[in-house]
Amino acid sequence: MLISNKITLALVTFNYDFDCLRRYLDSVQTHCNPDQIYEILIMLNDNISFKQDLNNLASCYTLPIKILTSNDFNYTRNAFNWNTQQYFKCVISDHVQTDWYIINDSKDHFTDTIDFFSDCFTPDNKAIVPLDFTNYYNGKFQGGGGYPFNLAFEIAFDLWDIQDTTWKRWHLPTFTPFFVKTSMMKDMVSELRLMLRGFFPYLFDLSIADHRFTTEFMLYNAYCVKKNRLDDYADISYNRVFFQKVTQSKDLRGANNKSLPMTPLLNQKVFNNGYVYMWDGQKWIKNDEKKVFT
Known about the structure:
This protein is an alpha/beta fold. It has two domains: 7-248, Spore Coat Polysaccharide Biosynthesis Protein SpsA, Chain A (Alpha-Beta Complex); 258-294, no CATH class. The protein has six helices and 16 strands. It has helices spanning 18-31, 51-58, 82-91, 150-159, 182-196, 216-228; strands at residues 7-13, 37-44, 65-68, 100-104, 108-110, 127-129, 132-133, 170-171, 178-181, 207-208, 211-212, 233-235, 246-248, 269-272, 275-279, 284-290. The strands form six sheets. A five-stranded mixed sheet has the order 3-2-1-4-9, sandwiched between helices. Helix 4 runs parallel beside helix 6. The longest helix is centred in the middle third of the chain and has 15 residues, at 182-196. It starts with 6 loop residues before the first strand and ends with a strand. Mean pLDDT is 88; it is low at 290-294.
């Protein structure tokens, strides 16, 4: 039976994000009530050789951190990227023991005191999130704010055979923090494993030209629509407090205090040995302002 009076925080990270992860954990330790957190699950979306670095980082905190690797999911591919992190955000539900878990990215961090229950849920246990008119579906899979995800949005509804097209005009957010009803995600993963069998770990690799075939959040959104029409969620207009206390920044994304990458990796800034380096198009330039963790 899942635990209802605590929350699980879940992240998928890789070695270039460890500095961002440290800031995230600092913010959890500073702004969150540890009595409300059952576990912080950190999934290493990277070669298992980085597990010791991650263990060393986690050991600096008194938080209930559990490190997971590909070995915990019998994942045998020698590939870790943006596609595999979507897969891990789904299957990490195998290890969640609470009614709800919140998916964060390492670039997320809390900026004020968080009460995970009064800030995040209605009295009848609905997660408060932005429920918006969709940016993705326009019937032609092109243009609009959601390009190149329009096709992914449409396929998610087709996959779960949702005939009521009015639901394509509303959706859960497609960014973190993302609130997951654990039982719903577990059921979705179970159905995908049965439906796709050994292909499931490759699902998020698919694209047609520049259009993503599907994404983890869009699949889950459509599955919730199919099962209970998003009845586990309430719109952010009920209470905006939580999303006012979370911010995102990639400024600390870096080289894990090792040598700088040959070219920019996902961002124009790298945090290395206490300094921010900017890419000028040909080489890394060190910023004069030294950055330190507090």
